[in-house]
UniProtKB/TrEMBL annotation:
This is Arp2/3 complex 34 kDa subunit. Residues 339-349 have a biased composition (Basic residues). Keywords: Actin-binding, Cell projection, Cytoplasm, Cytoskeleton. Belongs to the ARPC2 family. Residues 328-360 are annotated as: Disordered. Residues 328-338, 350-360 have a biased composition (Basic and acidic residues). GO terms for biological process: actin filament polymerization; Arp2/3 complex-mediated actin nucleation. Component of the Arp2/3 complex. It is found in: Cell projection; Cytoplasm, Cytoskeleton. The keyword Cytoplasm applies. Functions as actin-binding component of the Arp2/3 complex which is involved in regulation of actin polymerization and together with an activating nucleation-promoting factor (NPF) mediates the formation of branched actin networks. Seems to contact the mother actin filament. Arp2/3 complex plays a critical role in the control of cell morphogenesis via the modulation of cell polarity development. Its main location: other. One of its GO terms (molecular function) is structural constituent of cytoskeleton.
Length: 360
């Protein structure tokens, strides 16, 4: 069964491309939200924890939460002192970077500058971070804006710390593309971490940026499903109405853009996916959506692979149940007691029973 039979995957592919071309004011319809899953840039649990703390800061409730999200990103939210209930510590552990990526000081290039530009005086970076984490932020809730709408908007930005940090290098490249700025890294291969010990590659050019993903899956079934999904993904790009979306290609062998990549980075059992990003895809507020969609593309594919696998398992279970019911209905009924015309029941005796009765 291919992905064409899975309506949720098909709807998600179309919305994925439209997300890269629509303006920021356009949102998916409720039907589109049901038919697809595009990962949100903010951590829902982190946003809930921060919002609860803001509304209950005077109650003096202790806060100490730890959790892990997709691609092995780990969070720790803690209020260390009840004397300063407005101070919240947020620690983030990022995926282990492969050797080909630049990760100075345990953070991607430009992450510190991106944090300062995004959060201002509300957030302070602690150096060194807490043990076992790449980054620790000191959040002062008393410095949040009084306006409720602005306050909620800033909390969503704080909950999007993953996008701000991991997306910092890609954002810098796409900003230069939007401004058409000539930089020394033109035509240079840039490796960016997105999963534990795995990277995707960015090749900046003057008029475009090429993004290449080596797609790896540890499970053989996932590999087969992912390959089918990616081929369908490329076909969906040719759909009418998606002419302005980034061009997308899939190949089983590394594209020429990766000829300078280390050999260990080219082991992809589900092939290679390439996007070509033009300035129109990152103009204005489209930049944030494009950065997040590209940074989490592998997670997006993995999600739909698992959904389709579960969908097929459900279909198989239903099929087995229907076959079992058919077999149950085909079973011959056991001998029933027969009744005489006088409404008296009698039992048909076998030859063995008859001999036994005659002997007695």
């Amino acid at each position: 069964m291919g992905f064409r039979g899975h309506r949720r995957a098909g709807g998600s592919i179309s919305v994925f491309f439209r997300r890269l071309t629509s303006s920021s004011s356009e949102k998916p319809s409720p039907e589109q939200e049901i038919s697809m899953i595009l990962l949100q840039s903010h951590s829902r649990f982190l946003l809930q924890a921060l919002s609860n703390r803001v509304h209950n800061v005077e109650k003096g409730v202790e806060v100490d939460y730890q959790w892990v999200e997709f691609d092995d990103v780990r969070y720790h939210v803690q209020v260390v002192s009840m004397k300063n209930p407005h101070i919240v510590l947020l620690s983030v552990c990022l995926p282990t970077p492969p050797p080909e990526t630049a990760f100075p000081g345990g953070l991607p290039l430009g992450a510190i500058e991106a944090i300062k530009a995004t959060y201002g005086v509300v957030v302070q970076i602690l150096d060194p971070p807490r043990d076992g984490f790449n980054l620790t932020l000191k959040i002062n809730l008393s410095k949040l804006p009084p306006d409720e709408e602005f306050k909620q908007s800033l909390l969503v930005k704080i909950a999007s710390i993953r996008e701000v940090v991991l997306g910092a290098p890609l954002r810098a490249v796409l900003k230069r593309l939007c401004s058409r700025t000539m930089t020394p890294d033109v035509n240079q291969l840039i490796a960016l971490v997105h999963r534990p010990n795995e990277a995707f590659f960015v090749i900046p050019q003057v008029e475009k940026v090429i993004v290449v993903y080596p797609m790896r899956f540890s499970d053989m079934i996932d590999t087969v499903l992912a390959t089918s999904f990616l081929q369908e993904f490329v076909e969906a790009r040719r759909t009418a109405g998606l002419n302005n979306a980034p061009s997308c290609t899939w190949s089983s062998s590394p594209p020429l853009e990766l000829k300078k990549a280390p050999p260990e980075a080219l082991s992809a059992n589900a092939g290679f996916v390439s996007f070509v990003i033009f300035p129109r895809h990152v103009e204005g507020r489209k930049l944030d959506r494009t950065v997040w969609s590209l940074s989490t593309f592998h997670a997006y594919v993995s999600y739909h692979v698992k959904c389709s696998e579960g969908f097929m398992h459900t279909r198989m279970r239903r099929r087995v149940e229907s076959m079992i019911q058919a077999l149950d209905r085909a079973k011959p009924e056991g001998d029933k007691a027969k009744r005489s015309p006088n409404s008296r029941s009698f039992k048909r005796l076998s030859l063995k029973d008859a001999r036994t009765n005659s002997n007695t």
